[in-house]
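@channel sequence for tomorrow's demo:
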Amino acid sequence: QVQLVESGGGLVQAGGSLRLSCAATGRTSSINTMGWYRQAPGKQRELVATITSGDSTNYADSVKGRFTISRDGAKNTWYLQMNSLKLEDTGVYYCNSRTAPYYARWEYWGQGTQVTVSS
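structure tokens (generated this afternoon):
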């Protein structure tokens, strides 16, 4: 089992920055891909960014050039640096971990942290 705890959400004005953190505990050696997803009110959860244990990254088109995902393997923690925030970035942000190969029963989610961008 893996437990994920997010932190760093909050209220920020448009154009501002926030940094989210996700700390993993438990069987962290099984994690291959770490990610961030978000869910806006009335919308489906969507991918924001992922990073693998080999530091390969992937971003949603809507955040490219503004958000950066990174990780600290020694701390079993990954981060999402969010710059130039827009109103449409508002939502609950969830961190996610997966194994490789992928098994649904070994996919884990954090509890979510609210990010609110105001005008």
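heads up for whoever presents: The mean pLDDT is 96.
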